[in-house]
Design a protein that fits this description.
By secondary structure, the chain is of the alpha+beta class. It is 19% helix and 44% strand. A hairpin with a 4-residue loop joins strand 9 and strand 10.
Length: 257
C-alpha cells in the first residue's frame, strides 16, 4: 500500500440511500395535473440542489420528458416517441455522456438549481402531440458525474492528490487529483470508467396518480449512491457530511424508503 494511501476505496455498487417524497393536490382549486407534475419536478431539483451544499457539485444533469395518461387511477407513461425527450446539461471542460441519443445538449457555466429549473421549463414548454386524457410530464433526472468536497480531516497535507483503490477496475494506489479552492478541496473521477464519488437519480413512482376525481398525488423516489468509501463508512470523515444532507432532505419532507 502507498505510504500516503487514504485507506479508502472506489466501488461501483457503493452504498445506496433511497428516499421518497409524496405530494398531493386538490384539483378542485383549478390546478391541472401538468402543474402538479411540474411542481413535483421542481421538488426533485430542490433535492438535488440540497445535496450541493458542501457535499457534491454536479458535472452533468439529465432530464427525460414523457407523456402520461390516466389508467385505472394511475399516472401511466404513454409508449410513444417524442421529437424532444431528453435534456442534458454539462459543466465547462467536461465530456458529455448523456444516457439517451438525440439529447438536447446545453452548456452551462454552473449546474446549479437555477440551471436545472431552466431545463425543467424547457421540458414542459416544448410542444408535443397529445391525445385526449394525456399530459406532458417528466420521467427521470440523473447526475452520474460529480465532484465531492473532501472533508477537511481527510485532505492530504503535502500532496495534491488523494490515493484510493478502485476495486472494479483493479487499480490500486490510484492518485485522484485534488482541486483546492477557496471553498474547500474537491475531487471527482478523472476518466470514464472510474466512478464519481456520488451518483444521484430521481424518478416518479408508478403509483403516482389520481386518488379520486378531486385529488392528484405524486410520489417521487430519490436514490443517492455513494461510490467512495470516504463517505459511506460509519467512521469515515465524510459520513457526517452525508448524514447532514440526508437530515436536511428529511426536514423537507423526504422519508427514508
Amino acid at each position: 500500500m502507498h505510504d500516503q494511501h487514504s485507506g479508502h476505496v472506489i466501488y461501483k455498487s457503493g452504498h445506496a440511500y433511497k428516499l421518497r417524497l409524496e405530494l398531493e393536490w386538490d384539483l378542485r382549486c383549478g390546478t391541472t395535473v401538468t402543474e402538479c407534475d411540474r411542481a413535483g419536478a421542481e421538488q426533485a431539483v430542490a433535492a438535488i440542489a440540497e445535496l450541493t451544499r458542501d457535499l457534491i457539485e454536479p458535472q452533468e444533469f439529465g432530464l427525460t420528458k414523457c407523456v402520461r395518461f390516466q389508467l385505472e387511477g394511475l399516472s401511466v407513461i404513454a409508449q410513444q416517441p417524442l421529437a424532444e425527450a431528453h435534456w442534458y446539461l454539462k459543466a465547462p471542460g467536461t465530456e458529455a455522456y448523456p444516457l439517451y441519443t438525440r439529447a438536447q445538449m446545453i452548456d452551462v457555466e454552473t449546474i446549479d438549481e437555477s440551471a436545472m429549473l431552466a431545463a425543467v421549463d424547457a421540458l414542459f414548454n416544448a410542444p408535443c402531440d397529445l391525445s385526449d386524457n394525456q399530459w406532458p410530464s417528466w420521467e427521470e433526472m440523473y447526475v452520474f458525474d460529480t465532484l465531492a468536497r473532501i472533508p477537511d480531516t481527510a485532505v492530504p497535507a503535502t500532496q495534491d492528490y488523494l490515493v484510493l483503490d478502485d476495486l472494479d477496475n483493479k487499480a490500486l494506489d490510484l492518485p485522484i487529483p485534488l482541486q483546492r479552492r477557496t471553498a474547500g478541496v474537491w475531487a471527482g473521477r478523472y476518466s470514464l470508467g472510474f466512478m464519481a464519488p456520488f451518483s444521484v437519480q430521481v424518478w416518479q413512482d408508478e403509483y403516482s396518480g389520481f386518488r379520486d376525481s378531486d385529488s392528484f398525488s405524486t410520489a417521487i423516489e430519490l436514490r443517492i449512491t455513494v461510490h467512495w468509501s470516504l463517505w459511506w463508512e460509519e467512521a469515515s470523515p465524510g459520513r457526517a457530511l452525508l448524514d447532514a444532507a440526508i437530515d436536511r432532505l428529511q426536514q423537507r419532507g423526504w422519508s427514508l424508503a
